[in-house]
Amino acid sequence: MSQDHDRMSPIRHRMIPYLYTMSVRATLEGRSLVEPMYYDHPTDDYAYRNRNEFLFGSEMIVAPITKKKVFCTDMGSVEVWLPKGRYVDLFTGTTYDGDRVIVMHRPANSIPVLSGAGSIIPLDNSPEVTTTNGAPIPAALEIIVTVGVDAEFILVEDDGKGEDVDHIKFCRTPIKYIQKSGQIIIGPTNNPLVEKRDWTIQLPAFPLDHVNDIKVNVGQSAVEFEIKQDNKGVTVHVKEPVSADEQITMELGTDLLMRSNDLLAKVDEFLKRAQIEHDTTFEVLTIIKANLTKAVLVSRIEATQMEPEVQSALMEFILADA
């Protein structure tokens, strides 16, 4: 998902498959699209502490930036509590271990949007996403899947007919991820609204040493696909549209976990935008490259002469992984 200001409206429209499914959940189960963290974690004191952080549907945690941008980092910040588990920021590809509080820093065009291991998020992947009112049933979908935990999601759609929930003939597409076997299973679709669909699977923080394990079957037949990868993860696109009555099975490899961050790359990227002296930049990079234990690394960074906000931004990456 892009984080650019001029694409925020397309992002909202891309999310309609997810938002509509969550709206049906709200109607049938009484669960709001936006809920405080303590709804899912009522016995944890930290769930009540950060009041601006919220659950966005069943698959995301959002933490709006609440501390203003500072000159030395060119970023604002927010304190984020993550429950137990493993998480990835969908905008940056940065991974975090949960059961901790981390101050996250972001530029003006981004906020932390995190999904835990075992999340599934359907997006409209039409070549040109409309920014006007209304939205056609997409013939192309992109499914975000985070590995590490079993997951299941049922995409719900309808044709716009029917005055209330009791008179709507819903279209449902089951999507499942099986952690042990590393399989993503999509479909077949019940009561399909489009005959065929173009499918793309986005795998944030996917372990790159398993890219060659990826295989895609439609029914019992192997099909062609293409893979793209960057510092955020891996994207797999099935080359030919798939009939709604067929099942897609994607093999990823067994017992997969989201990869750890490349600490040096994350720090180097941050330092390039930070307003700090050259000597301090050199000192920080020397410390990061020294292959120190985490405790020693933290103590060395704390001992440097730099602005507290710069130090805090560095600590986000250092403390992200256990």
Helix content: 10-25%
CATH superfamily of the largest domain: Golgi alpha-mannosidase II
What fold name goes in the CATH topology slot of the largest domain?
Immunoglobulin-like
Secondary-structure-based class equals alpha+beta
Strand order of the largest sheet: 1-2-3-9-6-7
Strand content: 25-35%
CATH architecture of the largest domain: Sandwich
Q: Count the domains.
A: 3
Span from first to last CA?
A: 26 Å
The arrangement of helices and strands along the chain is HHEHEEEEEEEEEEEEEEEEEEEEHHHH
Question: What's the CATH C level of the largest domain?
Answer: Mainly Beta
Please report the total strand number as a whole number: 21
Radius of gyration: 21 Å
Please give the largest β-sheet. 6 strands, antiparallel
The low-confidence runs, each spanning 5 or more residues with pLDDT under 50, are 3-8
Mean pLDDT reading: 93
Overall body shape: globular
Number of helices: 7
